[in-house]
């Protein structure tokens, strides 16, 4: 048992810090380009991911132009359209959301929130970013390759992904896509090892697991899941690359392509789907769990109230993480797999709704009897609750095997996953950036611009995706280059499509406000001070803002309490920082 | 997908055991000061490196468990024709076992500070590992010469992919081992190499285990074993 | 205030949209009314939860907004409340899952008297095969596909001799008879989807999957491909014509005359 005398002001005695071997940058290049400081790497990851996000956003504009106004933009032919959906989907899911939550927020927040000086393997951490950048460049290169990028859909189902009837199938597109994914996975594994081992081994004195903020819990669990799930995509990608480039038959049965019988036999297209979704479903939670964690901290801080049911929140995170590995085949109810699997996967899928629902209840119960400050991060957190609940509930339609039958592969699915893993996590990302930007730069983002950005983004994206469910309910399939004449689709549905497209253009354009705000506030924002939100967690208690390399100066922080001592009865302030020893009267005991 | 689910189940059990020891049931708001459940994290480099390796092995384990799952699904297709395993594989297996033993001994001698034995052990491990890799390449050439080509049947393709993936991991291990050997020659005392040698040994044992598992599957023993278990249960 | 009001409007607006919007499912034309009922149950439960959560959030935002002197209540957890919420959620989930699994059991259990038909997908058209007088479909193999044998029928199999083949045209079905559709593809994955029938299943190359349904009203319905199958995906359409038994028989007779000539062993 470590025994630290009380009364020190939240830091370990200097002798305890020991000999900290930190890498010290010697030049501008090693400080800002090939940096081994997790905070710089975080910013590099974030800027790259946001840039990819902007590209993917523009791709979605083009798709919406085609869907809303079919035939008007002749350059978006079927080839181009399928390339657009494929690249948009893959970029957003893997190269934006995963990279931003784990590479961006993970790198920035883990060391600061657990009171470490840096990640435990800084050199590997640096390699992780540069490998990620390489993966992005390979992916983007496919736009310029002969034949263009792959148009197989982000799910890349064989055999069509590697046949000539699909854009990029017999050209470079699919090869570059698979290679890029493999490079991404290698890069992520290097980063992921850092995130997990840092949480396991580098926590500040006194930082027990149950004192960690939920943000750290979310990112930690998600990183661990990603480390175990990405190999499934890797295995699938290796085997598909062999099928495409070397002529093996892992996934290729006997096939007649354009009247020619191909030299393949016996392969199983469903095998790829199993591998893909064994990665693909945990991936949903790899994006969602960090968002859950971050939103918990945003709500607690801005409602000035401890997160309600902290223990349940942690257990729910872990339960969701574990369960998410046994639900993958709910993406395959109508794939032609053994239909009896449907019973098992529908049950596990609906069970996972219970821990998820508990998290939602605890967020709103945190608001109950709180002291709610409607700052911009809080607005985004509230919007997250609305969109996440909406998207989560439509998940109950699609997870319930027989209900999925008429709805799968329709616009209902598109609306559902955009709401739940597109809009909801991105709202959290925005909220998180408004929340932590002051720590990263020392300046506040502009409030008025933030609110404008918030309302357009939130209401706009709700207006895009809520009505879209009903197109799917009607039976409009997804991934259609043009709906054309369908007897059961009334003319009003085309009007709705045009409306959705116009709103999508507006919401997309509104993101420029955000980009402008980021750049403008860097110089002209209001100075933030060290702890503008009066938050308890360690990252707000650094001696300097923005924190320098090594984060803590000479003395490491010591943790005396959990992360949610807000509005403790009898305390002088409405928050008690985690590294504050009990100089104030003790908080009341639990009421339940 | 049986093998990956068994693997995940094992990880889950380890995770739950570990979390239970970390006070996952405690009420953190009741504890102030240095918490009673606080298990001091040893952030000194050896512990960090060991944890890092363990997590990495979980990732590699997941990779191979998935390959094996894919193998198990694909082999049920009617076009599957088993590959006759070249005899050289048994020699290779022996080499990998020797390599593991040598590294294990090297680890012991590093702890005891015996520099000469350490050097010998490391070199022996490196040499046998190289012999293993050459033997694997020999096996590939033999199969190719006998007409078992990559594209002619998926059983062949799996043989090349599985042994290739395993071989790449051995090569990665050899890079780390090579760096450790270089350090002994630069005169770093054995005591300071204890951690690196220990990590290499853990990684080697793990790769040996994976190889034995792959071998049991490629020979079909694993399949027979599972069938026997199934019959015993029913 | 404005925030709380907008949250209320979102909840109310979503419900209103659901009730008055003209976009709703197509009138059903098969026996899968149970699927629609399950969706309705799910709509009721999830709709109630959505409205309750958004309204509760709106109330909190209004009632507990920051005002000078307000202090938040300190209460780390309430085991009882959390337990009750968990139980209620569990009950709600079970109320959706149980009918769902029950209907799924029916969905995958083909009745004894169902007629086998085959639906074959290829880039980018639908073909169909109906059993001839013997009531059975013959064997096929993708490797036998050739211009004069587009479905890859085995010419050795006597059962294949009388099969009726409809290439790239309409699928005709008698009303009121259960149909078991065997689904097969010769190139990539397709998906047979008729919105009015509610049923949907992938056609996977290298294997045969199936669905069954009973058409319950006559009419012409559109077949869509619902699994991305290459650049022609959105043009892969077909029609299914559900007819009275007598009309169907007349059409079938006419077809059989042609099929015999086409696949006779002599054609080799």
From TrEMBL, chain A:
Keywords: Cell membrane, Copper, Electron transport, Heme, Iron, Membrane, Metal-binding, Oxidoreductase, Respiratory chain, Translocase, Transmembrane, Transmembrane helix, Transport. One of its GO terms (biological process) is oxidative phosphorylation. It is found in: Cell membrane; Membrane. Pathway: Energy metabolism; oxidative phosphorylation. It catalyses: 4 Fe(II)-[cytochrome c] + O2 + 8 H(+)(in) = 4 Fe(III)-[cytochrome c] + 2 H2O + 4 H(+)(out). It comes from the Bacteria. One of its GO terms (molecular function) is oxidoreductase activity. Residues 22-560 form the Cytochrome oxidase subunit I profile domain. Its main location: membrane. Cytochrome c oxidase is the component of the respiratory chain that catalyzes the reduction of oxygen to water. Subunits 1-3 form the functional core of the enzyme complex. CO I is the catalytic subunit of the enzyme. Electrons originating in cytochrome c are transferred via the copper A center of subunit 2 and heme A of subunit 1 to the bimetallic center formed by heme A3 and copper B. Belongs to the heme-copper respiratory oxidase family. NCBIfam families: CtaD_CoxA (TIGR02891). This is Cytochrome c oxidase subunit 1. The gene is ctaD.
Automatic annotation (TrEMBL), chain B:
GO terms for cellular component: plasma membrane. GO terms for molecular function: cytochrome-c oxidase activity. SUPFAM superfamilies: Cytochrome c oxidase subunit III-like. GO terms for biological process: aerobic electron transport chain. It is a multi-pass membrane protein. Pfam families: COX3. InterPro entries: Cyt_c/ubiquinol_Oxase_su3, Cyt_c_oxidase-like_su3, Cyt_c_oxidase_su3-like_sf, Cyt_c_oxidase_su3_a-hlx. The chain crosses the membrane at residues 53-73, 117-138, 158-182, 203-226. Its main location: membrane. Keywords: Membrane, Transmembrane, Transmembrane helix. The keyword Transmembrane helix applies. It is found in: Cell membrane; Membrane. Residues 1-223 form the Heme-copper oxidase subunit III family profile domain. It comes from the Bacteria. Belongs to the cytochrome c oxidase subunit 3 family. This is Cytochrome-c oxidase. It comes from Microvirga makkahensis.
From TrEMBL, chain C:
Pfam families: COX2. Residues 112-254 form the Cytochrome oxidase subunit II copper A binding domain. Its EC number is 7.1.1.9. It is a multi-pass membrane protein. Its main location: membrane. GO terms for biological process: ATP synthesis coupled electron transport. The chain crosses the membrane at residues 40-62, 83-104. The keyword Kinase does not apply. It catalyses: 4 Fe(II)-[cytochrome c] + O2 + 8 H(+)(in) = 4 Fe(III)-[cytochrome c] + 2 H2O + 4 H(+)(out). Keywords: Copper, Electron transport, Membrane, Metal-binding, Translocase, Transmembrane, Transmembrane helix, Transport. It is an enzyme of class 7 (translocase). It is found in: Membrane. GO terms for molecular function: copper ion binding; cytochrome-c oxidase activity. Belongs to the cytochrome c oxidase subunit 2 family. This is cytochrome-c oxidase.
């Amino acid at each position: 048992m470590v025994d630290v005398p009380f009364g020190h002001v939240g830091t370990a005695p200097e002798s305890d810090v020991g000999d900290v071997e930190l890498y010290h940058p010697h030049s501008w290049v090693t400080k800002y380009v090939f940096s081994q400081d997790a905070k710089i790497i975080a910013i590099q990851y974030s800027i790259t991911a946001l840039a990819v996000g902007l590209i993917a956003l523009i791709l979605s504009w083009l798709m919406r132009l085609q869907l809303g106004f079919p035939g008007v933009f002749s350059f978006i032919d079927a080839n181009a359209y399928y390339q657009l959906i494929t690249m948009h989907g893959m970029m957003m899911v893997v190269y934006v959301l995963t990279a931003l939550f784990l590479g961006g927020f993970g790198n920035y927040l883990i060391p600061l929130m657990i009171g470490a000086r840096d990640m435990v393997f800084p050199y590997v951490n640096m390699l992780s970013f540069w490998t990620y950048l390489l993966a992005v460049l390979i992916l983007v290169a496919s736009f310029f390759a002969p034949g263009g990028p792959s148009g197989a859909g982000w799910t890349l189902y064989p055999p069509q992904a590697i046949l000539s009837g699909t854009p990029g199938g017999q050209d470079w597109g699919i090869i570059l896509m698979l290679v890029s994914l493999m490079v991404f996975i290698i890069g992520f594994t290097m980063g992921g090892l850092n995130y997990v081992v840092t949480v396991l081994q580098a926590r500040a004195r006194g930082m027990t697991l149950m004192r960690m903020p939920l943000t750290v819990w979310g990112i930690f669990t998600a990183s661990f899941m990603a480390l175990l799930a990405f190999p499934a995509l890797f295995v699938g990608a290796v085997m598909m690359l062999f099928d495409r480039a070397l002529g093996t038959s892992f996934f290729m049965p006997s096939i007649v392509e354009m009247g020619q019988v191909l030299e393949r036999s016996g392969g199983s297209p469903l095998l790829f789907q199993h591998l893909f979704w064994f990665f693909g479903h945990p991936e949903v939670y790899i994006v969602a769990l960090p968002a859950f964690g971050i939103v918990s901290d945003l709500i607690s801080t801005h409602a000035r109230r401890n997160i309600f049911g902290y223990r349940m929140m942690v257990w729910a995170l872990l339960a969701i993480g574990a369960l998410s590995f046994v639900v993958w085949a709910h993406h395959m109810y109508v794939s032609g797999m053994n239909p009896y699997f449907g019973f098992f996967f529908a049950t596990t899928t609906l069970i996972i709704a219970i821990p998820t629902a508990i998290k939602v209840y605890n967020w709103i119960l945190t608001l109950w009897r709180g002291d709610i400050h409607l700052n911009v991060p809080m607005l985004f957190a509230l919007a997250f609750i609305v969109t996440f609940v909406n998207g989560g509930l439509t998940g109950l339609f699609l997870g319930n095997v027989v209900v999925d039958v008429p709805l799968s592969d329709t616009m209902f699915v598109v609306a559902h996953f955009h709401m739940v893993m597109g809009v909801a996590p991105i709202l959290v990302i925005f909220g998180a950036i408004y929340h932590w930007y002051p720590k990263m730069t020392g300046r506040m983002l502009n409030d008025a611009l933030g609110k404008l950005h918030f309302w357009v983004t939130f209401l706009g994206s709700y207006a895009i995706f809520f009505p879209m469910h009903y197109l799917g309910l009607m039976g409009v399939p997804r991934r259609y280059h043009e709906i054309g004449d369908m007897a059961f689709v009334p003319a009003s549905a085309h009007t709705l499509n045009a409306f959705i497209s116009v709103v999508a253009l507006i919401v997309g354009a509104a993101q420029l406000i955000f980009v402008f705000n980021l750049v403008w506030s860097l110089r002209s924002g209001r100075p933030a001070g060290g702890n503008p939100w009066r938050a308890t967690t360690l990252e707000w208690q650094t001696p300097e803002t923005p924190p320098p390399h090594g984060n803590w100066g000479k003395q490491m922080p010591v943790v005396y309490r959990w992360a949610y001592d807000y509005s403790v009865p009898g305390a002088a302030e409405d928050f008690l920082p985690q590294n504050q020893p009990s100089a104030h009267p003790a908080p009341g005991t639990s009421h339940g | 997908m049986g093998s990956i689910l068994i693997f995940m189940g094992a990880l889950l059990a380890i995770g739950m055991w570990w979390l239970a020891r970390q006070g996952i049931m405690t009420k953190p708001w009741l504890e102030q000061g240095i918490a009673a459940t606080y298990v001091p994290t040893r952030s000194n480099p050896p512990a960090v490196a060991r944890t890092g390796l363990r997590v990495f092995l979980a990732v590699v384990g997941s990779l191979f468990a998935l390959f094996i799952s894919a193998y198990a699904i694909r082999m049920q297709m009617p076009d599957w024709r088993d590959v006759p395993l070249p005899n050289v594989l048994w020699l290779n297996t022996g080499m990998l076992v020797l390599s593991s033993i040598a590294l294990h001994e090297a680890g012991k001698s590093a702890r005891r500070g015996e520099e000469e034995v350490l050097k010998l052990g490391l070199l022996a491990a490196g040499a046998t590992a190289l012999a293993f890799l050459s033997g694997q390449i020999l096996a590939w050439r033999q199969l190719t010469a006998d007409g078992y080509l990559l594209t002619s049947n998926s059983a062949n393709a799996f043989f090349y992919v599985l042994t290739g993936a395993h071989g790449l991991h051995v090569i990665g291990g050899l890079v780390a081992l090579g760096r450790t050997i270089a350090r002994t020659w630069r005169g770093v005392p054995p005591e300071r190499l204890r951690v690196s040698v220990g990590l290499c040994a853990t990684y080697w044992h793990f790769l040996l285990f994976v190889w034995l598992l792959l071998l049991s599957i490629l020979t079909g023993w694993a399949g027979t074993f599972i069938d026997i278990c199934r019959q015993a249960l029913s | 205030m404005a925030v709380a009001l907008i949250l209320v409007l979102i909840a109310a607006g979503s419900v209103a949209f659901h009730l008055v919007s003209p976009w709703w499912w197509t009138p059903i034309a098969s026996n899968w009314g149970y699927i629609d009922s399950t969706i309705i149950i799910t709509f009721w439960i999830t709709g109630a939860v959505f409205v309750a959560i958004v309204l509760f959030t709106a109330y909190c935002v209004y009632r507990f907004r920051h005002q000078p002197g307000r202090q938040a209540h300190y209460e780390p957890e309430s085991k009882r409340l959390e337990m009750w919420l968990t139980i209620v959620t569990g009950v709600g989930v079970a109320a959706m899952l149980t009918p769902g699994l029950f209907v799924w059991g029916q969905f995958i259990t083909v009745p004894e008297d169902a007629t086998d038909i085959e639906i074959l997908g290829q880039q980018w058209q639908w073909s169909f095969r109906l059993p001839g007088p013997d009531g059975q479909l013959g064997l096929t193999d993708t490797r036998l596909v050739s211009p004069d044998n587009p479905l890859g029928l085995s010419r050795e199999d006597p059962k294949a001799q009388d099969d009726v083949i409809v290439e790239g045209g309409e699928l005709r079905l008698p009303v009121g008879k259960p149909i078991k559709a065997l689904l097969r593809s010769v190139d990539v994955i397709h998906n047979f989807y008729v919105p009015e029938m509610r049923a949907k299943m992938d056609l996977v190359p290298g294997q045969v999957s199936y669905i069954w349904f009973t058409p319950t009203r006559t009419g012409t319905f559109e077949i869509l491909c619902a699994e991305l199958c290459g650049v022609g995906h959105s043009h892969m359409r077909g029609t299914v014509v559900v007819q009275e038994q007598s009309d169907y028989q007349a059409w079938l007779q006419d077809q059989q005359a042609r099929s015999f000539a086409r696949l006779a062993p002599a054609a080799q």
